[in-house]
Please model this.
Amino acid sequence: MTEYPPPGEPRPVSDELEQWLEGDDPKTLGNLVEVFGERSFAIVFALLMALPALPLPTGGATHVLEVITALLALELIAGRREIWLPERWKRLELATPARRRIITTLLKRIRQLERFSRPRGTWLFGHRLSGVVFGLVVLVFTATAFLAPPFSGLDTLPSIGVVVLAVGVLLTDYVLALAGTVVGALGMIATIGFGSLVVKAGKSLF
Model:
């Protein structure tokens, strides 16, 4: 198995992910978790929520991804340092054409963010409390995306929030993580506001 990170100067996260994607290791979810260790929570959150983050109405087709994300967030809240997966999930193949396109797109986005991102507030990361907070925020935003009305597109902003927050954690950049939190919070406000309008409209009919 390829060693990560390579010896010498630490490499950008995008290079590590690209090396895994182009290497000889099995392209399964379990192998990705094994390779990235404690950072696998952030990697997997970003991968799972990348599809709901696309500005397309999914009609609930991404609910399975959101449920898995929420379950993994609960693991993080419970204090786990590395992801535990059922054997069936470990064997999930990530090299299918559709999933490879998602990974490649995410890789490009991470590379773009790395251009202006730098380690900031690294002391905030790596503690159990920071992991709990990370898990809680991901859980709330994921639940918001899950509960967004089908075909409304309202799941996009909270999903983008999870992706950007996860990348911020990966790059140990609190500014980027905070930006993801703000985006996700705006998505929550939009979803709650839309829900309130629907309830008021319903009451006016009766």
Summary: The chain has a mean pLDDT of 85.
